[in-house]
Design brief:
Blueprint (H helix, E strand, L loop, with lengths): L8 H6 L26 E2 L5 E3 L2 E2 H8 L3 E5 H15 L3 E6 L6 H9 L3 E4 L2 H9 L7 E3 L6 H10 L3 E4 L2 H13 L4 E8 L3 E4 L1 E3 L10 E2 L4 H11 L3 E7 L3 E4 L3 H21 L5 E3 L17 H19 L5 E4 L3 H4 L3 E13 L3 E6 L8 H5 L6 E2 L8 E7 L8 E9 L7 E5 L20 E5 L2 E6 L4 H7 L3
Helix pairs in contact: 3-10, 6-7, 8-9, 9-10
Bound molecules: ligand LLP.
Length: 463
Amino acid sequence: MSRSAHPAGPRHADVLTEGHYTAPPADLNVLDEKVWARTVSRNDDGAVTVGGIEVTRLAEEFGTPAYFLDESDFRARCRAWADAFGPGADVFYAGKAFLSRAVVRWLKEEGLNLDVCSGGELTTALDAGMPAERIAFHGNNKTVAEIERAIHVGVGRIVLDSFQEIVRVSHIAQRLGKRQRVQIRVTVGVEAHTHEFIATAHEDQKFGIALAGGQAAEAVRRALTLDGIELIGIHSHIGSQIFDMAGFEVSARRVVQLLAEVRDEHGVELPEIDLGGGLGIAYTSDDDPREPHEIAKALGDIVTRECESAGLATPRISVEPGRAIVGPTAFTLYEVGTIKHLEGLRTYVSVDGGMSDNIRTALYDAEYSVALVSRRSDAEPMLVRVVGKHCESGDIVVKDAFLPSDLAPGDLIAVPATGAYCRSMASNYNHALRPPVVAVRDGEARVIVRRETEEDLLRLDVG
Ligand code: LLP
């Protein structure tokens, strides 16, 4: 179908300057499986289902806006990552993408480890029974209290992020009479996002210790001489939403070079390397993410090759995917409210959530897809911008997308691939109530994070 098939097509096309779509898909009722959780489909009545339950029923029971998370998809993705890397490597789920006690239990059952970056995430992990030795503790500015707690409970590793922290962790561990396993996070000089990576301007950031200028080598020197810590390896994280493995290749090569330098200088072969997270997912049909087994093979091959050429035994590899596990497993369900056709400009579809439940579009100019899910429609496609209900013009959920032109207030629309960094970055802006996360599996739906209430808001506001 050509764009001009829509009555307002040409005018709308004129303002399509920054969007993803240049033409509407052939059939708006078709859900691209790349961007939707695995058990999502459209039934014969035209309604979309997840885990066998119609979204219309879910909206009645749980309200909107709400995140619906496909539990079997989440578990399948955990297994795919664990199987791809095998028993000789470790997969740490990055809890910052989305963490709740149910998620921790699923991770534990599926054999994954957990990366936390705050006392709050650590509490959630421990409360849900994640064994401390399966937890990695991250952060560029861990507080003394956080470090004390992490060491006290016996986390598997603390990833050291600065010279000061090397000393701080060493002192605290000695005070507590412990020897804490640590990695040093290095900045390898590569910053990768989406389809490209750049090898400049990377040292100018708050994370890690630069390889450049011998700083990382100096950090290793200090860590090896201090009591209270046991240096088990080197950590590197190069960016987010990465599709191209070239950035990981450079990163792995540089980390292995450091291991070789450490061996030459200290006669010590550090046994582990962590290559971080950042693997991309499909937000729209144009994205082509790699499967975990391809990623595992690519990373394994790079590290093995680099170690062979440096004459090192291959270290144990770990990775920290967050988005790639939880991102595709959830969608946000909204009810359509006001629809405004601005003649000659654009059609705005307002929903009952917005930047408080998905800040990514406003913050990163992120691309999303959207579909009418409460019914089928064979009406002509209409180019729209999906916006929220907040007092801000940047409150955009989906910049440019096609929805059927008979869209009406009360329809349900859903934005897929919102499992990562949406609920975890949600806010109370305008005193919005943060939406619930509902896990759906085999015909059953249960709230794993409940909707905030006005009482919650008032409880924090102590007057
Ligand atoms: N490991 C470390 C050390 C990290 O800093 C991160 C993410 C991850 C693992 C997980 O990365 P993932 O596989 O989820 O991409 N709020 C941004 C993403 C920030 C990522 C920060 N660090 C977004 O919404 O795109």
